[in-house]
Design a protein that fits this description.
- The protein folds into two domains: 185 residues, Rossmann fold (3-Layer(aba) Sandwich); 144 residues, Rossmann fold, CATH 3.40.50.
- About 6% of the residues have low confidence.
- It has a seven-stranded mixed β-sheet with strand order 7-6-8-9-10-11-12, covered by helices on one side.
- It is globular and about 65 Å long.
- Helix 3 runs parallel beside helix 4 and helix 5 packs parallel to helix 6.
- The protein is built from twelve helices and twelve strands.
- By secondary structure, the chain is an alpha/beta fold.
Length: 383
């Protein structure tokens, strides 16, 4: 009887121990509350971003710590600020972190919901002003401010130019942001920076007058941040009217129609862009091939952004696998990651919550666009 009793006790202890080990290994879910414009004007971009996210979750299913699994709870904002904020309030108790909202207007409202409810909000907006007056919002995309800062650094440190001009259309917030970053960083590093601006909403601009002022200081770099319709005229006037030795840069790659029909205007022009999705390192990547195979279409920057968002969250969970749900996303500001694991070159966040990302420098010649280099350096903080 004693032997039978001992056997039962041992069996009980084995079952308890096994049950305890199984319960310890059981994964908990990390829920990502995704807020995107799924039916409005941004629906195509939203679909591309979501494709990238889902590819990351299926392509790298075992990359998170065994303790955690990731799932997405998605809602349609319809690109309406009030609806976006209300959705965040409704989802707050069901998710661990918010992600999405590329609209600046929607992000400006939603950031306060996240702030007062102490929930991290990874916004896809590109304006650094979204970070104002809140502590829990971070920006996933390259901001126009940082594009301007990195441009000034590239011209100064890589091209060894210290006389620069930025000519921008002040009717556009992104152009304003690039100019602001360009001027502040240029001044910080000791470059001579001149700014000239105009407002395209006020009627025809006298570009000859602006270019005459620019020519008087003999700049080494002219950086145009304008809409494409103004850009073609500006480039033609710059090349044909003035004897300038400056290198010309623009803030966007012209569309294929413009490159073909206006090839002469864009000859020997360079572009500074957040991401060039036709560079060899991207088109030959494992992500690119997997995306084509799964969705039967070529991925663009937005698909790569969605993929990297999920890779980032997976890496965060791995780094902080011993944390509780409430602590998992408390280590984002000032975080650093190996950029080689991301398709878009993402490096983490600075102490303000701005994504650390490089810019691509591309050259236009004979109607073709080719990558010159990818540039990154630590730049000054937002303030």
């Amino acid at each position: 009887m004693m032997m039978l009793y001992l056997k039962k006790c041992i069996l009980f202890l084995l079952l308890v121990t096994l049950g305890w080990n199984l319960s310890c290994q059981r994964s908990s879910w990390i829920t990502i509350g995704v807020l995107d414009d799924q039916t409005g004007s941004s629906r195509q971009m939203t679909q591309e971003v979501m494709n990238g996210r889902m590819l990351a979750l299926t392509d790298r299913p075992n990359q998170t710590d065994v303790r955690w699994k990731i799932k997405i709870k998605s809602s349609d904002t319809m690109n309406l600020p009030e609806k976006t904020a209300n959705l965040m309030r409704e989802m707050n108790d069901q998710v661990d972190v918010f992600l999405g909202v590329s609209s600046v207007e929607c992000s400006q409202v939603s950031k306060y919901v996240a702030h007062f409810r102490k929930k991290v909000f990874l916004s896809e907006a590109i304006e650094d002003t979204v970070l104002d007056q809140v502590s829990s919002t971070l920006l996933m995309q390259q901001t126009s401010l940082n594009t301007g800062k990195l441009s000034a650094r590239y011209f100064f440190s890589s091209l060894k130019k210290d006389k620069m001009v930025v000519l921008y259309d002040q009717s556009n917030l992104s152009f304003q942001g690039i100019a602001k970053g360009f001027i502040s960083e240029g001044s910080l590093i000791g470059a001579q920076v001149l700014e000239e601006s105009f407002d395209s909403t006020l009627g025809k601009t006298d570009f000859n007058r602006l270019l005459t002022k620019i020519e008087s200081i003999a700049p080494q770099i002219i950086f145009f941040c304008v809409y494409e319709k103004e850009l073609e005229e500006l480039l033609k006037l710059t090349v044909k009217t003035f004897d300038l030795s400056a290198t010309l840069f623009v803030n966007r790659i012209p569309d294929e129609v413009a490159l073909t029909s206006q090839a002469e205007a864009y000859q020997q022009v360079f572009c500074v862009v957040p991401f060039f999705d036709k560079k060899d390192s991207f088109t030959s990547s494992r992500f690119y091939q997997a995306y084509v195979q799964k969705f039967n279409q070529k991925p663009n920057y937005y698909a790569a952004l969605g993929y990297d968002e999920m890779i980032f969250i997976q890496e965060m969970v791995k780094k902080n696998s011993n944390q509780y749900h409430s602590e998992l996303f408390s280590h984002l500001k000032g975080s650093s990651f190996d950029e080689s694991i991301f398709v878009t070159g993402f490096r983490g966040f600075n102490s303000d919550g701005l994504a650390k990302r490089p810019v691509d420098i591309v050259k236009i010649q004979n109607g073709k666009v080719t990558l010159v280099e990818t540039f990154w350096t630590e730049v000054s903080l937002r303030r």
